[in-house]
Design a protein that fits this description.
mainly alpha, 4 helices
Length: 63
């Protein structure tokens, strides 16, 4: 199942990192905290690896 937004993708990446033990679970907040508790590592990998047409930094204009 692909991520529907960049925010969902970031939350999945944070949850995956905590699930793998790379970051402490106590650092998780909001959606990433519930994702880590309710989803498997494989599901989180699928969400975090969703390809985007453009990167968020390319969509912004510099002032």
């Amino acid at each position: 199942m692909p991520a529907k937004s960049a925010a969902q993708q970031k939350a999945a990446g944070a949850a995956l990192s905590a699930k793998r033990g790379e970051t402490p679970k106590s650092k998780l907040k909001g959606a990433s905290k519930s994702m880590a508790a309710s989803m498997t590592e494989t599901q989180l990998e699928e969400l975090a690896a969703t390809k985007r047409k453009t990167s968020p930094t390319m969509c912004r204009t510099e002032t």
